[in-house]
Amino acid sequence: MKDGFVRIAAVSPQLRVVDCDFNSDNIIEKVKEADSKQVKLLVFPELSITSYTANDLFKQDVLLEASLDSLARIAEETRECDVLFYVGLPIRVEGKLYNTAAALFHGEVLCFIPKTNLPNYDEFYEKRWFTPAFSGIRSINFRGKSVPFGTDIIIRDPSIDGFSVACEICEDLWVPQPPSTRHALAGANIIVNLSASDELIGKEEYRRDMIKVMSGRLISTYIYASAGEGESTTDMVFTAHNMIVENGSILNEENFAGDDLLVAETDVFKLLHERMNTSTYPDVKDEGYLKIDIKLERVDYKLTRHFSRYPFVPSGEKERVERCEKIITLQSLGLKKRIKHTNAKSAVVGLSGGLDSTLALLVTVKAFDMLGRDRKDIIAVTMPCFGTTKRTRSNAELLATALKVSFKEVNITKSVRQHFEDIGHDESVTDVTYENSQARERTQVLMDIANQCGGLVIGTGDLSELALGWATYNGDHMSMYGVNASIPKTLVRYLVKYFADNNYSGASESLYDILATPVSPELLPAKGDGTISQVTEDLVGPYELHDFFLFYIVRLGFAPKKVLRLAVHSFEGVYEEEFIKKWLSVFTRRFFAMQFKRSCLPDGPKVGSVTFSPRSDWRMPSDAVRTLWEI
Fold first, then answer.
1. 217-230 pLDDT, tens digit each
2. 309 within a domain of the structure (yes/no)
3. Among this protein's residues, is 326 annotated catalytic?
């Protein structure tokens, strides 16, 4: 359970209607299989010992006694298994029959949880046989032992912060006030649901959406195990639609699942962080709840769970296109409001021929189109100097021409040389002074042109550069409105590609070449053949790694050692562990050292889950010590 990962599973084993011995054999087999796979929490379907479709046979003493015998045998034969698991069976208490879930661990029946909401509509007739759960916790006698019986029960391992499990049964999920809400407010992070939901046209999608919403709303992991095809088909068909959902995201799912274990690793530390980070999440109110403590064996899993290499970028093409459209619209709307509010006569964009400035210009064009303004009021300024290459200079002009904006060239070489002379800097020394003098001169030029034409300077820097501090303080770090401030570099590329793929304003040729150009500030002299000599990712590391670090450290608050583990897992076959570790160290070092740049950022629209605006999402002392984050 290192780093908060706990392996969990749902399963719909082979089943025969009211054949308790057969069903129990398969339950035992699946518990042992789960144990061999280091699963620590396993969920079976509703009434899995007897079958859900026993109907009036539930009133037969022989079935009720057989189910109790089977439960005792299941407990005994799984005594050596280090798995907390839930099975379903009918239990008679004081002359009433209850549809219950039994929780078992190391040969002990820990508790019985009765179903609260009994469906009695359409094809369901549960009130014909069962009684709804009553409030409060009571104990019943099972094989000479007093076992807790009630709904308000949480099973936890106190040594694993965040491993706390509560249970509801099938219909409990579908009602306006499901027990899971109460369970989560009492501190349960994992909700299990033993279900027997029959399959109908359209029900699969509805069921999936409901569980995703429930898991997200409760900031919980939801394990859903549903009855399979062994159930009676007299009036219904069951397809073993099993799901594991974490905070609204599906970790694993299968319909028509057969009897294979559906396995995933949930991150209970992540759930704790998300609840802590959500100030509107209520304080724990566990009055009346019974807490049952267990002790799980510690396991360091080889993760099977998938972590996207690009957490800021949707994986599916359709979703990615939709996301790009929405992000661009939000950026453009933000800029539209700023232009309208300031009565700006123009917008000034420093256009380098690189990705960030290209996206900033495209967004500016969209904003002007929304305002019904002439694109000629947008002034794209290229400012060649020592490191500017023919390729980037050409692409800047081609793009400006295609977009029908005004284009202006201001060669800053003479100004920078004069500045070197003024401060006594040797031009042959290509150090930080050499580089930053150019960046600050470019910013001065843009600001002064904006003053000349009553305009706003549109910032081009992105979220990844802000995280690394890869910006010249009071140079490209500054603008009058930073449209890319919450867009990470990996996403910038997809946004520009979206415009290219749609041949926006006939600019696809230049956009595709910009996408193929190495990322560079072009502050050092070009190579002898005229190509770029200063490649950013050679200096600070791959942006795909830094965006991965950024998401998991800043967005989710993970410790660097955990992020390293996830990165090694996700980039297996791409980067070696030592390579990843090297750049993770660079990330944390630069992130702490460069906070002072983020403490005075210009305005810019938040369009994603991470932003460094000191006025909203990110307030960090500029002199914080990095020691705890060293790797």
1. 999 999 999 999 89
2. no
3. no
